[in-house]
Amino acid sequence: MNFEASLILIENFWKKIHEILNGNAIVAIPAKDLLFIAKENNQEAIEKLKEMIQDFHSSPNSQGLLSKALYLKKRDKNELSIYETAL
Predict the structure, then answer these.
(1) Rounded distance, CA 10 to CA 14, Å?
(2) CB–CB of 27/46 below 8 Å?
(3) Which of 19, 29, 38, 77 falls between 20 and 30 A from 59, CA-CA?
(4) What's the domain count of the chain?
(5) Mean pLDDT for each 10-residue chunk of the chain (87 residues)?
(6) End-to-end CA distance of the chain, in Å?
(7) What Rg value do the Cα atoms of the chain yield, rounded?
(8) 67 vs 24: CA distance, rounded Å
(9) Euclidean distance between CA atoms 72 and 79, whole angstroms
């Protein structure tokens, strides 16, 4: 089984991601084995996340679906907040 989405629970993972992005992260978790991340101010990447979420949720072959939302992971917070739900 794959549980890549469970990485959202590991704070050291986020420390590395925030260092790489040099800012806040937008997160998509369309299925239990999928975790996609984009920089908060990269609108092109955020649009791509939306497309991928729609593709996974509309495919009859997708399994373990979780969420159609995008989440914001701020650099200084230990929580995800909803960024956008209208997908």
Answers:
(1) 7
(2) no
(3) 38
(4) 1
(5) 72 91 94 91 96 91 88 92 85
(6) 27
(7) 13
(8) 20
(9) 9
Length of the chain: 87
Backbone angles phi, psi at 24, to 5 degrees: -75, 160
Give pTM, 2 decimals: 0.87
> CB–CB of 5/35 below 8 Å?
yes
Structural domain boundaries, residue 16: 4-84
Query: Which among 84, 7, 6, 4 is positioned nearest to 47, based on CA atoms?
Result: 84
| DSSP bridge pairs for 73 | 25, 80
Q: Which tokens sit at 8?
A: 């959202």
Tell me the residue type at 51. Answer: E
Query: Which DSSP category does 6 fall into?
Result: G
Write out the H or E segment, with its range, that includes residue 25: strand 25-28
Helix, strand, coil tally for the chain in percent (to 5): 40, 20, 40
